[in-house]
Amino acid sequence: MCENLKIYDYNFKKQEVEEEITIKDDKEMIARIMYDIGMSGTTWNKLYHKSIFATRRFENRIVNDIVVTYKCYIDAGEVIFSNQCKYYYLKHPDSILGRSVRERQIDMYKASLERYYYIKNIYPDFIDNDIGMLLMIFHRYRVDYAKMADFIKSAKMKKKYNEIFSLKKVLKCRVSRRMR
């Protein structure tokens, strides 16, 4: 997996950084999907060994990435991650993402539920899966983030919340995504 840059036309500047390679296990990568870190949930900024797709196929649905990527992480066991931008994603107005917002939202919700139960079956005590599902619900239904934080704290997730999920971290992540 590598970093990516979303571009809207071909006039962009390539950003050079010294490459750092890290290895992340499947749970770390699934957590990145759940917390919407980088483009961890997409399929397009990654190289795959062909054996990963021996039993995996894309479905005829809008949000294919959501139903394939986490399964690939689980099958692979670990991911080699490069901080260098090696993928340039051209945002195109006629892409599949241009479909009806309602149609996309419904498919996103169904795919998120499928992902939640699939991961829950493999890793029943993986709290990042539970928090990720809550985040998806809160995001889709536009719940106030202060209320979300109160809910997470009241749901006996305080220890994990204090470790990885502070309100400042969520807001910082949301602000940095908007700046990209």
List the topology elements.
Layout: E1 2-7, E2 21-25, H1 26-34, H2 64-76, E3 78-90, H3 101-122, H4 127-140, H5 145-154, H6 158-164, H7 167-179
Parallel strand pairs: 1-3
Antiparallel strand pairs: 2-3
Helix pairs in contact: 1-2, 1-4, 2-3, 3-4
In short:
The chain is an alpha+beta fold and 180 residues long. The protein is built from seven helices and three strands.
Task: Tag the structure with descriptive keywords.
single chain; about 180 residues; alpha+beta; disordered C terminus
What does this entry look like structurally?
It is built from 7 helices and 3 strands. It has helices at residues 26-34, 64-76, 101-122, 127-140, 145-154, 158-164, 167-179; strands at 2-7, 21-25, 78-90. The chain has a 3-stranded mixed sheet. The chain starts with a strand and ends with a helix.
Number of helices, where a helix is a run of at least 4 consecutive DSSP H or I residues: 7
Strand content: 5-15%
In percent, how helical is the residue content?
Answer: 40-55%
Q: What is the N-to-C succession of helices and strands?
A: EEHHEHHHHH
Structural class: alpha+beta
Cα shape: globular
Radius of gyration, taken over Cα atoms and rounded to an integer in Å: 17 Å
How widely separated are the two ends? 18 Å
- Please provide the count of β strands: 3
Mean pLDDT over the residues: 79
Strand order of the largest sheet: 1-3-2
Query: Spans of 5+ residues with little confidence (pLDDT < 50)?
Result: 174-180
Biggest sheet: strands, sense, closure?
3 strands, mixed
